[in-house]
């Protein structure tokens, strides 16, 4: 049995994959920093979370186990950078959706709108997890007076308004919202994400 932590030999006890994983997490936690085990490899193959759960009780004798760690701050920064890119794409989709509505291209507009709304719907969870990792409370002002809690509430209202406009088939109001309201929402989220990244350093 060979066990490594971040490519360095590690003296971790345990006869099963679960036991080695738990020992690795305990050793990382004892280090007193913000690192965590984020990946497990068995005999040269990366295990998904589902595979790790399914194979947790497998004996590790005769196998090579590699654990990889990362800083919670680094993970939060990466999640925020990915969120920036996704919201940039969502902004472009909403702008184009508004233009399509003005051109009476409803089907194309709805396709873009659906993709953008899907991105925005999971944005609060991503932002909250990243903020939690770096110790920022939801009501902490980050960009001017804006806090995560305030932006999530505004986003909820924006999404409800889109739903109402779609149900009412009010494409004029929806096109106006996409042209004038959503860019302001996007700007505020960009500022919050930039503020969190600045705190990470």
Structural commentary:
The protein has helices at residues 17-30, 49-54, 72-102, 106-133, 148-167, 171-200, and strands at 2-5, 8-9, 35-42, 45-47, 64-71. It has two domains: 2-71, Ubiquitin-like (UB roll); 74-200. The model has no long low-confidence stretch (mean pLDDT 93). Strand 3 and strand 4 form a beta hairpin. The chain is built from six helices and five strands. The protein has 201 residues and is of the alpha+beta class. The two termini are 40 Å apart. Helix 4 runs antiparallel to helix 5 and helix 5 (148-167) runs antiparallel to helix 6 (171-200). It has a five-stranded mixed sheet with strand order 2-1-5-3-4. Helix content is 64%, strand content 12%. The relative contact order is 0.11. The longest helix is centred in the middle third of the chain and has 31 residues, at 72-102.
Q: Quick one: overall form? A: elongated
The overall pLDDT, averaged over residues, is 93
**Approximate helicity band:** 55-70%
Order of helices and strands: EEHEEHEHHHH
**What topology, given as strand order, has the largest sheet?**
2-1-5-3-4
Proportion of beta-strand residues = 5-15%
Specify the structural class. alpha+beta
| Gyration radius, in Å | 22 Å
**Poorly predicted regions:** none
Q: What is the total number of structural domains? A: 2
Q: How many helices?
A: 6
Please tally the β strands and state the result: 5
Distance between the termini: 40 Å
Taking the sheet with the most strands, its summary is: 5 strands, mixed
């Amino acid at each position: 049995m060979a066990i490594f932590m971040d490519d360095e030999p590690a003296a971790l006890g345990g006869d099963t994959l679960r036991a080695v994983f738990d020992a690795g997490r305990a050793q990382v936690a004892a280090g007193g920093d913000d690192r965590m085990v984020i990946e497990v490899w068995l005999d040269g193959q990366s295990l998904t979370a589902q595979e790790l759960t399914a194979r947790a009780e497998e004996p590790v004798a005769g196998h090579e186990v590699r654990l990889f760690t990362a800083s919670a701050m680094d993970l939060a920064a990466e999640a925020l950078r990915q969120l920036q890119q996704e919201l940039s794409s969502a902004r472009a989709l909403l702008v184009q959706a508004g233009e399509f509505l003005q051109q009476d291209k409803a089907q194309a507009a709805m396709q873009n709108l659906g993709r953008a709304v899907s991105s925005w719907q999971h944005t609060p969870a991503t932002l909250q997890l990243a903020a939690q990792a770096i110790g920022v409370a939801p009501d902490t002002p980050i960009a001017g007076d804006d806090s995560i809690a305030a932006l999530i509430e505004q986003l909820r209202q924006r999404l409800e308004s889109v739903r109402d406009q779609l149900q009412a088939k009010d494409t004029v109001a929806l096109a106006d919202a996409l042209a004038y309201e959503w860019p302001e929402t996007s700007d505020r989220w960009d500022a919050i994400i930039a503020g969190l990244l600045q705190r990470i350093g």
